[in-house]
Amino acid sequence: NLLNLMLGRYPQPIVRDTTGILSFALPTIAKGIPSQLLANRPDVKQAAFDVQAAKLDVAVTKAEFLPSFNISGALGAQAFSPSYLAKLPESMLFNLTKDLAGPIFNRHAIIAEYKTANAKQIQALYGFERSVLTGFIEVNKEVNNLQNLIGKYDNKKNEVDALLKTIDIANDLFKSNRADYLEVLLTQRDALKSRIELIETKLQQCNAITNMYRALGGGWK
């Protein structure tokens, strides 16, 4: 019922996949997500409508407040209306904190363009900036989380494969009277524990994909 509600339809059967979670292929996400996709978020859209209601140019506001780089973990200096940023070498990378400080440095210069703006208009600009920064932080966090989980899953899968081979070796040693059955049981226990952790990591990946979809306001296409 909750899934049907999210899909905006009345209750009806939902086909389930019975092949198992480990065989589920995660959707492909580009390494760099265009930051312009932040404009799809409901909170950013609402803030844009507030800017429009304040009789300001929404297109200009988006161009100056939306970062101009791809969200990929390694964030470049070209962001948030580059004409307001200090000239820096193109190869220089900023950390997340410095990138998020971009709009703060730009704020006075941006608002100065609206010299006739009243308090409501300035409030709308601040609201739009806050929505963009909130979305930026959420999406960047999920990008890094997903990248970490992909590496974690690969490592755990290699561990499971190695432990499964160890079970075969332990059985062979037991059959040849070179090991007792307790060693076989301990090896099976370790393999089972590792496989459970692999499934949990896969579930975390699925949750990260869902969070990414939500953070971008409906996907990355």
Summarize this structure briefly.
By secondary structure, this protein is mainly alpha-helical. Helices cover 60% and strands 4% of the residues.
List keywords for this structure.
221 residues, two-stranded antiparallel sheet, 4% strand, elongated
List the topology elements.
Layout: H1 2-6, E1 33-34, H2 42-53, H3 58-65, E2 70-71, E3 75-76, E4 93-94, H4 96-100, H5 102-112, H6 119-175, H7 181-215
Antiparallel strand pairs: 1-2, 3-4
Walkthrough of the structure:
This protein has 221 residues and is mainly alpha-helical. The chain has helices spanning 2-6, 42-53, 58-65, 96-100, 102-112, 119-175, 181-215; strands spanning 33-34, 70-71, 75-76, 93-94. Strands 1-2 form a two-stranded antiparallel sheet. Strands 3-4 form a two-stranded antiparallel ribbon. Helix 2 runs antiparallel to helix 6. The two termini are 27 Å apart. Residues 74-101 have low confidence and may be disordered.
